Amino acid sequence: xxxxxxxxxxxxxxxxxxxxxxxxxxxxxxxxxxxxxxxxxxxxxxxxxxxxxxxxxxxxxxxxxxxxxxxxxxxxxxxxxxxxxxxxxxxxxxxxxxxxxxxxxxxxxxxxxxxxxxxxxxxxxxxxxxxxxxxxxxxxxxxxxxxxxxxxxxxxxxxxxxxxxxxxxxxxxxxxxxxxxxxxxxxxxxxxxxxxxxxxxxxxxxxxxxxxxxxxxxxxxxxxxxxxxxxxxxxxxxxxxxxxxxxxxxxxxxxxxxxxxxxxxxxxxxxxxxxxxxxxxxxxxxxxxxxxxxxxxxxxxxxxxxxxxxxxxxxxxxxxxxxxxxxxxxxxxxxxxxxxxxxxxxxxxxxxxxxxxxxxxxxxxxxxxxxxxxxxxxxxxxxxxxxxxxxxxxxxxxxxxxxxxxxxxxxxxxxxxxxxxxxxxxxxxxxxxxxxxxxxxxxxxxxxxxxxxxxxxxxxxxxxxxxxxxxxxxxxxxxxxxxxxxxxxxxxxxxxxxxxxxxxxxxxxxxxxxxxxxxxxxxxxxxxxxxxx
Length: 533
Hints:
By secondary structure, the chain is of the alpha/beta class. The chain has helices spanning 26-39, 53-58, 87-93, 108-115, 119-134, 147-153, 155-167, 184-194, 214-224, 245-254, 256-259, 268-272, 274-284, 306-314, 341-350, 360-374, 383-393, 446-454, 462-465, 509-527; strands at residues 4-5, 7-10, 43-47, 69-75, 99-105, 139-145, 172-177, 203-207, 228-231, 262-263, 302-303, 332-333, 402-414, 420-432, 435-443, 469-477, 486-493, 499-506. The strands form 5 sheets. Strands 2-3-4-5-6-7-8-9 form an 8-stranded parallel barrel, surrounded by 7 helices. It has a 3-stranded antiparallel β-sheet with strand order 13-14-15, with helices on one face.
């Protein structure tokens, strides 16, 4: 049975840039666009030519992002002037793009109040803009802004706006839930009515997430007949964001309700790269990835409770709606005081430790985990520290180095320029293969100074840790008062793309941090296959 084609339109570089705190540089836009093109995206909206120097530069030359059609965003012409005499429109038409996407008002209230023009003048602006763009020979589409609100207020006028663009030759008529307040059943009903006037293969959906329904609304629109979906990576967008393509893509490609009826341009390899792309974007924006994000989050395929872990060992489909490897993620069974022997065995198997389930060391290790979690450790969020704990319990972690002592100091002073600065210094003494070594380093804080000093000279192990970097640092106070216990969690990564987390606990925040740092380095040496001393 042949399947209908769905087209995906990414607007991360334009609508996603409306996110508070997000401002892409040109090179960042190009990196994202190359990733989108490689995975098989149909349309990439590069920005609004003329709105910023970055967006203008993006369209200053022709860009090749595979089969993706590079799209320039713009606004319909102003009322009271011709298309040829509208500087904004002409700037967009001059862009080196494969397609255009123009935003036009479709809510009568906005036309009269926000634009301050008559309803007929707005219709004329839509018609003239689409006609001018189509005449260039490039694919043209319109985003009918606030379409669902407009349809509920005045269905005849909202439809007339969509039909005007359709009649002038627009390839796509995109229905926008601009304030994100429409619910899925409303989207389905309204799209079903619109489809009576405009063929579904010419309709698109652009949903915002203000009510948490952007993905559901997009899927409802597809079920009702639209064949283009607009969205952003990681759901970026103004206010609460846009429909999240990272969630939509695997749903469309893997869920039988959609996969049996429709095909999309994303390749299997592109799908397997989804987790990487999602995290790469967060890294670019200097944001921590959402560990609970559907499909790609670090916790998306994590099981903690013992009874669930037992079921996963027998059949992963019990608690996993898709194979995690399909989207480039992985399964994890967390070890905690809530889990039991099954959770522990599952995690040991994942890290490659084959142990008989009746081995007495398993019970001792489980008791150790529970004792340490009672003391404040949390291994369900620090898999690397757990692996080291487990390997030590089973006698398989080399003593690569011994820390003999460390100290830190914080000094506030005037530098040579007469500026008041705070300087942190750390001294670390270690023994590597019987040889004592001392390293001194400065940092922008005591933990950074310790990290630099500890990794400054580990002798024969130095080549194994040169690409190690700390990517996140979290502190939690476990109880109040002057004798508070502190838990420090450190996330580390290397050039292979691996990311791991370690934990330290102590009444002293520096000591807790140092524990996590030592675990991070030791884990890196283990995973890199560093030779035992």
